[in-house]
Design brief:
single chain, alpha+beta, Immunoglobulin-like, 4-stranded antiparallel sheet, 3-stranded antiparallel sheet, 2 helices, about 30% strand, flat
Length: about 160
């Protein structure tokens, strides 16, 4: 049995023709592959007339914390003003919607590339307990929406029977 030196990149095809004078740099080739994939997705994802990407839906990230008296909800919605955010509360869920409008920029001598997400978004968050939806408090600061959702009185003093067997 012959011993062979282990080469983890042995079966990978090179993106560029082999050059004897240059050492193989796999990370440079990975970067090249990533750029080629980005260009492919730029061609495949449909855009609106204004150049906005319409293929993906923006959904803000959420943190939810439940205490005895309330549910505390935080949403990450950077780049908006409070007037652009709509919050609706039912006893069982919260609906957050809004729109991030594109900024029209013109550049004479170059190309402008943007990876920001623009367009409408909407998120419905089911709640683990019923709330008093007429007493919800909201604060929007530094791109984070903080909601304090007081629990319904029936939920605060709810006793649950636990079966032991």
């Amino acid at each position: 049995m012959a011993l062979m030196r282990w080469n983890p990149f042995r079966d990978i095809e090179r993106l560029e023709p082999f050059r004897d004078s240059e050492p193989w740099e796999p990370f440079r080739e990975i970067d090249t592959l990533q750029r080629q994939m980005n260009r492919l997705f730029d061609r495949l994802i449909p855009t609106t007339d204004g150049g906005e990407r319409s293929g993906f839906i923006f959904s803000p990230a959420v943190e939810l914390e439940e205490t005895d008296d309330a549910i505390h909800l935080k949403l990450e919605i950077p780049g908006l003003e409070a007037k652009d955010i709509n919050v609706e509360a039912t006893p069982e869920s919260i609906l957050i919607s809004g729109e991030r409008k594109t900024e029209i920029k013109t550049e004479e001598n170059g190309i402008t590339r943007s990876e920001f997400r623009y367009g409408k978004f909407q998120r419905v968050i089911p709640l683990p307990s019923q709330i008093q939806n007429d007493k919800v408090q909201a604060e929007y600061k530094n791109g984070i929406l903080h909601l304090t959702l007081p629990k319904a009185e029936s939920e605060k003093h709810k006793a649950v029977k636990i079966n032991l067997g």
